[in-house]
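Same chain as my last thread, 229 residues:
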Amino acid sequence: MSLTPIDDLAALLKIDRDALERAVPGIERLLSDERLFGLLPLIAASARRESTEVEADLAIREQILRYHATELMTDRERAAFLGLPEGCRIRERAKILAPEKFVCGKNVWIGEGAVLDAQGGLTVGDSTQIGLGVMVWTHTSHLQAIRGETGTSRKGIAYMPTHIGKNCFISGPSVISAGVTIGDGAVISPMTFVDRDVAPREVVSGPLSLKKLERRIDELERRLAESES
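reply #2:
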């Protein structure tokens, strides 16, 4: 029996055909688009034949296809399809790297274009909101780069678990550095780079913190000038 495009896509995503049809209502009509219909058999044939591709490339292909399959889902459908807990919502173009190392609470909201890197271990508590374009990291490869080891060795990559508590509000676009712990109920203002632990219910704002520092410097310079006069 010949395989249909739906069978091919289910095989590539490594899920049951019936589960795919339930997750994406009307998928048969969507796959009738001649642009996708022509591309899918080529991808499927490539995946079925013997190949010298490394395992990492195959994993990346599977991830690309899984995210592509979510483009026409609602926020809740997408979250369920990606295995997130009850009440979670995830907007389009958001990504979770190494989802098997991601521990997510209930009723978490993840905004458009957010990148959640769980390669070093990532925990997000119940009812936390992660805004548009937020980047949360659990690894850094800067040593790999400056040593000239990009693509040749992974020894220079440092992995550090990141923890975000419950009821937090992470505004976008902000960046949470690897190894940071953010306490329950904390608020991270837009355009903030967080490279230290944040206490519960603390409000962190990169621009405001910089202004406070500038005011302190101005005050110290004024006092120094007065003492010298």
